[in-house]
Amino acid sequence: ARLHVPKSIRACPYSSTAIASASAGNSGGGPKQDQQPIVELREYDLHPHLVSTYMGHTTNSANLRKSLVPLRLFTLPDTGGKINVATHLYHYEGGHAARDEARAAMAQNAEWLEYLENAKSCMQGQRSTVFAEAPLVSRTEGLPGLAGSQAESLIGESSPGAIYELRRYKLQLGYDTVPRFLDLYEKGLPSKLNAEGTDPGTNLVTLLYTEVGILNEVIELWRHNGTGGMEKSRVAARKATEWREAIAQIANLSVEFTTCIHRPTAFSPLR
Predict the structure, then answer these.
(1) What angle do CA 154, 155, 160 make, to 5 degrees?
(2) What is the DSSP-derived secondary structure letter of residue 192?
(3) What share of the chain is helix, strand, coil (3-state, %, to 5)?
(4) Rounded CA gap, 2 and 25, in Å?
């Protein structure tokens, strides 16, 4: 279904709490820092000749993983950059404390430790980055975000040809760069989401910005019904005047932009 317009490393130099409070007009309604949900992106570089072995072990242990940690999406990149990278997103409603608790429990789980013993030999390296969802995610009707089962219910039924597009911005350093990006993005987004000719299977899932990791990084996560749907929606977006104006200003804040197509695994909650 189409989305609707919005209603009415190192620690990052700004915090998700600060951005949320600013968005609420400093009314005191923003969440407390210890309650702020976080999203963890984990990326594992795999030995090319052991990808199928890794995926076999990981598929067999998928239910165990989902019982221990709040997995939202598990993919492998298809094109747009480095391939053979197991890419997975987790949403921790209770923030860092919830993540610490979950990972401590994993470290004590014998079945999980057995899986790790088999899987780690397939890896060349591991990366973990912590993000927060942008305030516009909760303000935009029909934009699922990654909290709970809401994302799955709003995305709709899984499609064999579905792809996920990770669009990553590396921004200039500065305390106000990310807030400026988010403000510009939110102003231009409605025209993109409602652009005539947009494929009905295109959905913005979430917008993330760094909490712990590479400074001033923003990620858009889009779901499309295949590359054909993605291309159709891109063509439509080029005709959205407000979006083009926003991107022109966002370009002045950016030092790098990449986009990568990912294909979800059979056990991924989001497919």
Answers:
(1) 155
(2) H
(3) 40, 30, 30
(4) 29
Distance CA 183, CA 192 (A): 15
Per-residue CA distances from 249 to 183, 192, 240 (Å):
11, 15, 15
Contact (CB, 8 A) for 179 and 261: no
Cα separation, 163 vs 48, in Å, equals: 21
Instruction: List phi, psi (to 5°) of 183.
Output: -65, -45
Q: 227 with 163: CB under 8 angstroms?
A: yes
Our measurement of the distance from residue 238's CA atom to the centroid of its chain's CA atoms, rounded to an integer in Å, reads: 23
What pLDDT digit, counting tens, does each position of 223-246 carry?
A: 999 999 999 999 999 999 999 999
Q: What gap in Å lies between CA 251 and CA 246, rounded to an integer?
A: 9
Alpha carbons 83 and 80: distance in angstroms, whole number:
8
Residue pLDDT, tens place only, 16-55:
545 654 444 433 334 444 579 999 999 999 999 999 999 9
Mention every residue, 6+ apart, whose C-beta is less than 8 A from residue 7: 139, 140, 141
Pairing of strands 254-264, 71-79: antiparallel
pTM across the whole model = 0.87
Q: CA–CA distance from 181 to each of 96, 186, 188, 205, 254 (Å)?
A: 25, 9, 11, 18, 9
For the record, the structure tokens of 25 come out as 């007009």
Residue 203 host element (H or E): strand 203-212
Residue 46's CB: how many other CB atoms inside 10 A? 21
Half-sphere exposure of 109 (CA within 13 A, CB side): 16
